[in-house]
């Protein structure tokens, strides 16, 4: 059984990471072919940094992901706070169910719905062209919200309510109690929601496809538009750089977490 479980594990890892490994290897292929590896070269990385359209699309994706994830995190945190303070359990259950619906909806349904909403608003306001950067920001913030709430709400449930009451008894206002006592306790959930919202926005294609305009193009849209012809090999280089960046960030986070655990254990041992 142990041998079978190990074989199964290696097969799963191969299916997950073999395509990524092939992409990374052929991003250094000088010949620009997937059928033969002709030599190691940084040729496609050089072409990438000369492709202004690709770099602009990457910049648009990063700006959109940062702004939408920040908005979703702020709104989602206060939405989770409101749900935690809600006393009527029937209304609370109904709101929780409504919050989970966008996560269950197919992306194409969400994208078409938002496109129709924006077009209807444009018709009411008499605007000829409403789709673009701002509609994408609204759409990305909207579909990221439920994930932020899902990350933050359990932190409020785990929070010791007596600490908030003690802060109020000692003279804190409700806002001071929230920012000085509750916020530090729920910060891990907020950061998890922020990272998830950022990742979802950076990765999204379907919803962006319906609410975008030609004058504001994200990286997934740029790569999709290339599939009508041939995908540039510089895109392999760009994907490799993104993979390496994510890997480095994960290693840094894990390294920082291990250092924090060690320092915590040392303090506990010293006591």
Topology (SSEs and partners):
Blueprint: H1 2-26, H2 43-48, H3 52-85, H4 89-104, H5 107-125, H6 133-158, H7 161-169, H8 174-203, H9 206-211, H10 219-226, H11 233-270
Helix pairs in contact: 1-11, 3-6, 3-8, 3-10, 4-6, 6-8, 7-8
Task: Provide a descriptive summary of the structure in words.
- The chain has helices spanning 2-26, 43-48, 52-85, 89-104, 107-125, 133-158, 161-169, 174-203, 206-211, 219-226, 233-270.
- It is mostly helical.
- It is globular.
- The model has no long low-confidence stretch (mean pLDDT 83).
- The chain contains 11 helices and no strands.
Short description:
Helix content is 80%, strand content 0%. It is mostly helical and 271 residues long. The longest helix is centred in the last third of the chain and has 38 residues.
């Amino acid at each position: 059984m142990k041998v079978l479980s190990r074989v199964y594990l290696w097969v799963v890892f191969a299916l997950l990471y073999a395509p990524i490994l092939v992409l990374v290897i052929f991003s250094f292929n000088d010949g620009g072919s997937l059928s033969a590896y002709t030599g190691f070269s940084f040729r496609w990385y050089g072409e990438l940094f000369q492709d202004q359209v690709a770099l602009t699309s990457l910049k648009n994706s990063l700006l959109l992901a940062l702004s939408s994830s920040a908005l979703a995190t702020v709104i989602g945190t206060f939405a989770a706070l409101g749900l935690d303070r809600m006393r009527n359990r029937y209304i609370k259950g109904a709101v929780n169910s409504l919050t989970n619906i966008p996560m269950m909806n197919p992306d194409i349904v969400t994208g078409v719905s938002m496109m129709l909403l924006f077009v209807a608003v444009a018709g009411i306001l008499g605007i000829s062209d409403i789709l673009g950067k701002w509609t994408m920001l609204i759409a990305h913030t909207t579909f990221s919200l439920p994930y932020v709430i899902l990350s933050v709400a359990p932190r409020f449930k785990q929070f010791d309510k007596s600490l908030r009451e003690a802060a109020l008894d000692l003279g804190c206002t409700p806002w001071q109690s929230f920012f000085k006592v509750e916020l530090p306790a729920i910060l891990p959930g907020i950061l998890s929601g922020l990272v998830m919202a950022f990742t979802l926005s950076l990765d999204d294609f379907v919803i962006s496809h319906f609410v975008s305009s030609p004058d504001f193009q994200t990286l997934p849209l740029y790569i999709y538009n290339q599939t009508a012809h041939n995908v540039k090999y510089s895109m392999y280089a760009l994907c490799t750089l993104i993979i390496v960046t994510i890997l480095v960030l994960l290693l840094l986070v894990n390294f920082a977490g291990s250092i924090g655990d060690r320092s915590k254990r040392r303090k506990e041992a010293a006591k």
